[in-house]
Amino acid sequence: MDKIERKNVILTVVASIACALVLNFLLGVEPYCSYAKNINALQADIEEITDYSRFLYEIEVSGTVINPADKVIKNDVDSLDYFENIKISGYEAQLIKDEYKPDIESIVLSDENNTYDIGIYKVLRPDLIFFDGKTSLKYGFFGYIPRKSIPIGIYRIGLKIRSDNKDKVLWTGNTIIVH
Q1: φ and ψ of 28, to 5 deg
Q2: Are residue 112 and residue 47 in the same domain, yes or no?
Q3: Which of 44, 129, 145, 149, CA to CA, is 20 to 30 A from 156?
Q4: DSSP helix/strand/coil, 103
């Protein structure tokens, strides 16, 4: 890259930042968070999984979390990004024919009045090797929920899974407070 091209790139970046600052601070226009499009209200009840013995899973959450197993409230609001996104990540696998296979389709959040389906992104997780030394899932997931995109409340966290050719929800026992 020669000197003129480098100068043009720098000017373009500076101009973009300046435009964003003008829109944000002077006009009150905030940048759009694209994760909001991944949130859909579920209209129908979804069948719950009752046999948890076939599943391996773990959930990690940023935000205010109630974990009943630990009887701890974790407040991790400082880890929220510019858009105040709550991040839910982890892994899930179902035992199918003596082998664990990931089959999560989305994250489910449910309170007394609403149930939401949160789109996920699958990611490579080379750290997922289990106690037997040979079970390796390789893939995990994450999903972001902008705090302002769902009503204030206490939500159960579930995983929507394709099981027996039907969508079902596996409730994780974790709860998140959106405030």
Answers
A1: 75, 15
A2: yes
A3: 129
A4: coil
Claim to verify: residue 112 and residue 135 sit in the same structural domain: yes
The span from the CA of 67 to the CA of 7, in Å, is: 52
Q: What is the mean pLDDT of each run of 10 residues along the chain (179 residues)?
A: 73 73 62 69 84 85 58 50 76 80 88 90 78 67 84 89 86 84
* Number of structural domains found in the chain: 2
- Please give the full DSSP string across 37-98, using - where no structure is assigned: GGEEE--S--EEP--GGGEEEEEEE-SEEEETTTTEEEE-GGG--TT-EEEEEEEEEEEETT
CA separation for the pair 103, 50 (Å, rounded): 17
Instruction: Give the pLDDT confidence score for residue 77 in this predicted structure.
Output: 47
* DSSP 8-state symbol, 137: -
Predicted confidence at residue 12, as pLDDT, reads: 81
The amino acid at 154: I
Residue 139: its pLDDT value, please?
Answer: 79
